[in-house]
Amino acid sequence: MFYSAVVAAAGLSSRMKAFKPLLPLADGTVIGAVITTLKRAGVDDIVVVTGYKADEMAVHLEKHEVRIVENKLYAESEMFDSIKLGLISISDDCEAVFITTGDVPLMKLESLKALQKQQTNIVRPVYQGKGGHPVLISKKHLPQLLNYSGDKGLKGAILSLDEPMIDLEVDDPGVIMNLNTPEEFAQARIYEQENLQEEDLPENVPSYEEILTLWDLYKTPSNVRQHMLVVEKVAAELAAELATAGKILDHKLICAAALLHDLCRTERDHEMAAGEVLRKLGYTDLAHLVESHNDGSWDDDIDEAGVLYLADKQVLGSQRVTIEERFAASYARCKTELAKQKHGLRFKQAEKLHELYEQLVSIQYY
Prior knowledge:
- There is one protein chain.
- By secondary structure, the chain is an alpha/beta fold.
- It is built from 15 helices and twelve strands.
- It has two domains: 3-176, Spore Coat Polysaccharide Biosynthesis Protein SpsA, Chain A; 196-361, Hypothetical protein af1432 (Orthogonal Bundle).
- The strands form three sheets. Strands 1, 4, 5, 6, 7, 8, 9 and 10 form an eight-stranded mixed sheet that branches. A two-stranded antiparallel ribbon has the order 2-3. It has a two-stranded antiparallel sheet with strand order 11-12.
- A hairpin with a 2-residue loop joins strand 7 (122-127) and strand 8.
- Helix 11 runs antiparallel to helix 12 (284-291).
């Protein structure tokens, strides 16, 4: 069967406070993850409807070999208006079409294949009783969908059809994971990390399960673990902002380093101690980031180590604070003049790095 797909990705991403489609996820971007799963399910024709930041999206989507339809009225129209534009543009060869949004990137391939196996004309995945994406609809219903003029969006249009929609229960929380807020994005990253298949794990990054094991093995105190979890969240947000501007870094490497940078916090020279542990395990790149999270130099660009450094300097205990607040607290612990001098240098480096970060996120790399 010839399948098409319409992916609505025209919105403003106002609640996320960052451009959702280009946030880093699954070794790429949010929109890239959606497209990749659809292609793996054998979808031959994918139409992505853009709107906000359409030019950036067009450049990014070139490598994904999809067709683009721009909703120029995205700011004053609804998501279903974008879906209609996409449906008008799908291939004439289409026999059934997947309809989804660009912010549900973690749906499993197995869920799409299960939808394809159903002998029905309208079906959607359901997880624990909650309807999700994508919806799979036979081509014969498209004219009626396009003629729908009510105010209930896609759901109202589907309910107006002369055939009921079938709910297919799937063991896949990804079908209901809409990434609308920074909190939901953080939860999605954790879910993605925990559900990586063994063959998909990058060789230079331990799994989340392995990180938890290392915490236990090296008796990392609970308050330090909480600190690293917050640093990981801040680092992910910084990396996401850079990615929105087009500066793509190794997101998994950054997050793993954030979750391990204080692994040996109770030891002397804890950065080097943790680095040695990670090198022995074969995580050379990760060891480098951990070893440099208190010292480093970044003049005109930021790498993964710079993101970790900046994130760590914005967390006091388990609270996100300003750089000034973070260093004011640590200065009080400096007992010698040498310690105070080193502290001053680190403070200046953090301020300089933060200024560089703000410059970079204001640049559009695409």
